[in-house]
Every structure is written in structure tokens, then in C-alpha cells.
Amino acid sequence: MAEGERQTPSDSSEDAPLTTQNFIIPKKEIHTVPDMGKWKRSQAYADYIGFILTLNEGVKGKKLSFEYKVSEEAENLVATVVPPHLAAAVPEVAVYLKESVGNSTRIDYGTGHEAAFAAFLCCLCKIGVLRVDDQIAIVFKVFNRYLEVMRKLQKTYRMEPAGSQGVWGLDDFQFLPFIWGSSQLIDHPYLEPRHFVDEKAVSENHKDYMFLECILFITEMKTGPFAEHSNQLWNISAVPSWSKVNQGLIRMYKAECLEKFPVIQHFKFGSLLPIHPVTSSC
């Protein structure tokens, strides 16, 4: 990743004591296209993209089977969802989790719902339930499990893609696993970008690498030549290195997801991911 793109999400434990913080139910703030300027200048944007890039660094060069330690607070999260002393934060944090599984009326799902789940994880980090030490577990254990659940829902209910992604789309539903999955493969001794369109290479390595697992799922769901049903990915396979793929996908994610009104109009803002402009001290 380019040095200029690295950001670190602010630590809410330093911004305000959690025992005195006033949590609020997140709400929509982006109602018109001109409102997108507020989003791109907001603390929420800075914290969200900083969180995504921090995890991107954390999984670089590691397999899904990588052994990692999980903090005591993360274990408590599994046991109790949110520890009792953080009960006041539950209504705010829960909004992002509810938004992350698609629309129950339209039966659709897309990158906006995926972003809601990433925002949910970001909020858990901001209240201290998850920690920096948990970054690998956040991607490999929690987010990867979320992907498995969503893929099952996509298969079972034939969920519609939420919005038309056009020719730039990587696939119909996800984006983040391609970013973090390409980071996993940086400096791999033999797997190069050109190999992800090789059926044998995908079959032999998909259990270790999130990117290849995404490719396998696409080929299971779609028929016909790969270059036709996934043209953007086909083009990416010609990029010479995973590092360049990763950097390009980060730029693409910002431009085609985080800066697109149809996606961000549904994002909600509260005390943990606020709409107010980012401060110079962060």
C-alpha cells in the first residue's frame, strides 16, 4: 500500500471516556448528492477508511489458517455479544449489524450492506470490545464467517444485487474481501494475479486465501467464459503484482463505493461514526 494511503482510526477511549459518552441511534445524513461533501470530510469517513486500511495491513502476506491471538475482550464479545459495562452502546452499534444483512423487503444485498458490517466491526473497536491485536481475527474469523453466511443467503434466496454496479463491478455483492484478499497474497512465492483465472490454482488454494475464495464463489454462481461474466476481474488478472492490485482496489473502493451517492445515501451516523468534519488532531 502506498504510504500516503495509510490511516489509523482514532481511538475513542482517548477521545471520550466510554462511561460518560452519550451514545445515539445512528441516522441517515446524506439526502442529496451535494451532501456527499459532508461525508468525505466527516470523522466517520476518516475512521471507516482508516479501519479498512489498518486491517489491510494486518492480513498482508498471511493465510486464512494463520495462527493469531485473540484478546480477552474479544472472547467476551463472543460469549456476551457486548460486555455489560458497555450496554449503553448496544442500541447504536446494533444498527450497523441490522443494516449488514441486506434489505428484507427487496431481498437485495450489495456493497452498502457490506460496509455496514465493516462499520459494525469498526464501532466494536472504537468502544474497546475489539482491539488492534485482534485485526487478523477480525478479518479471518469474524468477517470471513460473515461472508459465509451472506453467500448462503445469496444462494438460498437468490438475492438481487443492490443497485447496478456497471462495468466496474468486481462481482455482484462484495468488495472488501478482494481488497484484504489481495493483501494476503502480496509477495506470495508462486501465486501471481494471473493465476486467479486458473481453475486449478483456485481449486488448490482457495481455502487459504480470501481472494481466491471469492473467485470460486463467482464461478459457482455464474456460467460462461470468465472474461465475459467478470470482465473487470479478468482485466485485473493482467496486473503484474498483488501489491499493485491491492493499491488499485483501494483506490477503486474509495471512488466507486465510498464516493457513490447510491451507496452512501443509506449509511447512518451516530456518536461513534459522526458526520461532523474530521478534526486536525485525528
From TrEMBL:
<keyword id="KW-0547">Nucleotide-binding</keyword>
<dbReference type="GO" id="GO:0046872">
    <property type="term" value="F:metal ion binding"/>
</dbReference>
<keyword id="KW-0539">Nucleus</keyword>
<dbReference type="GO" id="GO:0008160">
    <property type="term" value="F:protein tyrosine phosphatase activator activity"/>
</dbReference>
<keyword id="KW-0697">Rotamase</keyword>
<keyword id="KW-0007">Acetylation</keyword>
<dbReference type="InterPro" id="IPR037218">
    <property type="entry name" value="PTPA_sf"/>
</dbReference>
<dbReference type="GO" id="GO:0000159">
    <property type="term" value="C:protein phosphatase type 2A complex"/>
</dbReference>
<keyword id="KW-0479">Metal-binding</keyword>
<dbReference type="InterPro" id="IPR004327">
    <property type="entry name" value="Phstyr_phstse_ac"/>
</dbReference>
<dbReference type="Pfam" id="PF03095">
    <property type="entry name" value="PTPA"/>
</dbReference>
<dbReference type="GO" id="GO:0005737">
    <property type="term" value="C:cytoplasm"/>
</dbReference>
<keyword id="KW-0460">Magnesium</keyword>
<dbReference type="GO" id="GO:0007052">
    <property type="term" value="P:mitotic spindle organization"/>
</dbReference>
<keyword id="KW-0413">Isomerase</keyword>
<dbReference type="GO" id="GO:0005524">
    <property type="term" value="F:ATP binding"/>
</dbReference>
<comment type="similarity">
    <text>Belongs to the PTPA-type PPIase family.</text>
</comment>
<dbReference type="GO" id="GO:0005634">
    <property type="term" value="C:nucleus"/>
</dbReference>
<comment type="function">
    <text>PPIases accelerate the folding of proteins. It catalyzes the cis-trans isomerization of proline imidic peptide bonds in oligopeptides. Acts as a regulatory subunit for serine/threonine-protein phosphatase 2A (PP2A). Modulates PP2A activity or substrate specificity, probably by inducing a conformational change in the catalytic subunit, a proposed direct target of the PPIase. Can reactivate inactive phosphatase PP2A-phosphatase methylesterase complexes (PP2A(i)) in presence of ATP and Mg(2+).</text>
</comment>
<dbReference type="InterPro" id="IPR043170">
    <property type="entry name" value="PTPA_C_lid"/>
</dbReference>
<protein>
    <recommendedName>
        <fullName>Serine/threonine-protein phosphatase 2A activator</fullName>
        <ecNumber>5.2.1.8</ecNumber>
    </recommendedName>
</protein>
<keyword id="KW-0963">Cytoplasm</keyword>
<keyword id="KW-0067">ATP-binding</keyword>
<dbReference type="GO" id="GO:0003755">
    <property type="term" value="F:peptidyl-prolyl cis-trans isomerase activity"/>
</dbReference>
